[in-house]
Amino acid sequence: MGISLAAPDGTELVAEVTGTGPPVVFVHGSNGGLDSWTDIGDRLAGYRIVRYARRNHQPSGVGPAPNGFAAEAGDLQTVLTAVGRAHVVGGSYGATVALHAARADAERIASLALFEPPLLLSGPHLAPVIEQYQRLFTTVRYADALELFLREVARMPAEVLADGPPIPDDPVAAMAALADLEAMAGDDTDTGRWASIGVPVLLMQGGRSWAPLPEGMDLLAAALPRAERVSWPDQSHFATVTAPDLVAAALQTFLDSRVSGST
C-alpha cells in the first residue's frame, strides 16, 4: 500500500507499507529510494514493513535548500507519527538520519538498527566540495558531480570506484546527492552526542569497509549505552545489497528479541 505524507515544511513524502505486525521503518542511504530495502524487508517475518523515499529522492518531493539533518529527522518523525511507535532501520546516510531523529525525540522509536552511518565523513571541511559540486551540476556534468561525491564525500577508494557500476549521467541522482552533501557539511563528527539515545541499538558493519567507517562505528558503539554489534568479515559498505540474507537474519534476531522482551 502506498501512502503520501506531508513533512513539517510541506515536503511530500511517499512510503510503501507491506505486511502485518509491529512496524519497522526503513531509512535508505544516498541515492537510494523506495526499493533500497526491498530485498531485506521481504525476508523479515512477522512485521509491517514501511519503506519511504527521503526528501529529494523520487517519488518524494524536493525540499528547501540547503538540506539538513534536522529536516530529515523531522521527516522520519512524520512517518513514525503515521505508522505508530516503530523499530527504525537505517543504512549509511539513512542511519545518520535515524540517529538524529532518536536524539531529538525517541518517544516513537522502539529500537534502532544501523548499518555504517558515515559519522566521521561529515563536517565543514565539505564546504569547498559543495562549491565544486555545484559548478559541475550547473554545467550539466552530472556524472562528474556524482563521481566527486563518491570520491571526496564518501571517500570511496579508487579501486572500489573503478570496480563499481558506471556512474549515471542523471540530474535527479545528482540533485539528491547534493542535498545529502549539504546536510553532511552542516553536521559535525561529535560521536559523544549520541550517548543520550537510550533505546536498544544494533550496529551492523562489514569487515572490509574502508576508513573511516570502522573507526566511526567503534566510537558510536562506545557512546551508545545500549548497543550490540554484528560484523560480517567478508562484506563491505555494500552489504545491504550484496548480502541481504545476512542483514535480514541479523535484523530478524534483533527485532524478535525486542518484541519478545517487551511482552
UniProtKB/TrEMBL annotation:
<protein>
    <submittedName>
        <fullName>Hydrolase</fullName>
    </submittedName>
</protein>
<dbReference type="InterPro" id="IPR000073">
    <property type="entry name" value="AB_hydrolase_1"/>
</dbReference>
<keyword id="KW-0378">Hydrolase</keyword>
<dbReference type="InterPro" id="IPR029058">
    <property type="entry name" value="AB_hydrolase_fold"/>
</dbReference>
<feature type="domain" description="AB hydrolase-1">
    <location>
        <begin position="22"/>
        <end position="241"/>
    </location>
</feature>
<dbReference type="GO" id="GO:0016787">
    <property type="term" value="F:hydrolase activity"/>
</dbReference>
<dbReference type="GO" id="GO:0016020">
    <property type="term" value="C:membrane"/>
</dbReference>
<dbReference type="Pfam" id="PF00561">
    <property type="entry name" value="Abhydrolase_1"/>
</dbReference>
<dbReference type="InterPro" id="IPR050266">
    <property type="entry name" value="AB_hydrolase_sf"/>
</dbReference>
